[in-house]
Amino acid sequence: MDSSYLKHYSQSANANTMFDGAALTDLQKELLAKVDEYGVAWAERAFKHDREASFPTDNYNDLKEMGFLGLCVPKRLGGIGADYRTYTLVASRIAYYCGSTANTFNMHNANSLWTSGMVDDMELTDEQRASHEHNRSIHYANMLAGKIYSQPFSEGSGAAAGRHPFGTITSRKNDGWVINGKKIFASLSGHADYYGVLCTEDVPNPSLADTMFMAVPADAPGVSVVGDWDPLGMRGTVSRTLIFKDVFVPDTAQLMPRGLYIKAAAQYPHMFMTLTPCYIGVAQAAYDFAVAYLRGEVAGVNVKRRMYPTKQFGIAEMYIKLQQAWALFHRVTSEFKRNPARAERMRAYACQYTIMEYCAEICAEAVRVCGGQAMLKTFPLERMYRDSRCGALMLPWTSEICVDRLGYGLLYNEGERDE
Question: How confident is the model at residue 397 (pLDDT cuts 50, 70, 90)?
Answer without folding.
Answer: very high
